[in-house]
Amino acid sequence: MTDPTPTTEPKPATDPKTVNPMLKTALEFGPILAFFAAYLWLKDEIFTIGGTEYNGFILVTAAFIPVFLLCMGALWKLTGHLSRMQAVTAVLIVVFGGLSVWLNDERFFKIKPTLIYLLFGGALAIGLMRGQSWLQAVMEGLMPLKQEGWMILTRRVMWLFFGLAALNEVIWRTMSTETWVYFKTFGLTAAILVFFMFQGGLFKKYSTEEAAE
């Protein structure tokens, strides 16, 4: 489809179900915060399972995977919808978290954010090369913008994702596991929030007339 105008697209048969915002937030961020708290609790512990020693990070990772999937399943059940970004994230968590546990090597789980942001940034880059804003399809309901605004925002978000991928590589390769856990839990989220806070000028300049009214 080359025409990005949403008014020409047929509406889905059923809209996403309404869910309590607090519950939705808890399901989305609860597993991450639980991972952080469990890591701080068990980071210095060594566990012997089946004759193999596992540190606290690996054990917490093993517990995080099913908890995350259960929360995503509950979110899908409540809303009737999961975004492509959530689906891709879930697959990468299972694959790379599973590799970390199976091979007893925490590096696989640490590289996951790098791959997530490279995939998302690469997808946006492909859309831009085709003259399309694929970010618009994901976020249009949240930020009504003119087409030119969507193209500018997509380009900026693309570079944000590539920058976060590079930053994650620097952090996990040069700093301690504890530093990376703090960065993963709070740093990445804060970086995205700060980024969108600084896009106020773009939102104001390219907002649709309906949004301005």
From TrEMBL:
InterPro entries (UniProt xref): YciB
One Pfam family per UniProt: IspA
Gene Ontology cellular component list: plasma membrane
Keyword Ribonucleoprotein: no
Location within or outside the cell: Cell inner membrane
Membrane topology: Multi-pass membrane protein
Highest taxon listed in the record's lineage: Bacteria
TM spans (from-to): 25-42, 54-75, 87-103, 115-135, 156-175, 181-198
Alphabetical keyword list: Cell inner membrane, Cell membrane, Membrane, Transmembrane, Transmembrane helix
Keyword Cell membrane: yes
Signal peptide residues on this chain, from the entry's feature table: none
Function: Plays a role in cell envelope biogenesis, maintenance of cell envelope integrity and membrane homeostasis.
HAMAP family, per the entry: YciB (MF_00189)
Family listed: Belongs to the YciB family.
Protein name per the record: Inner membrane-spanning protein YciB
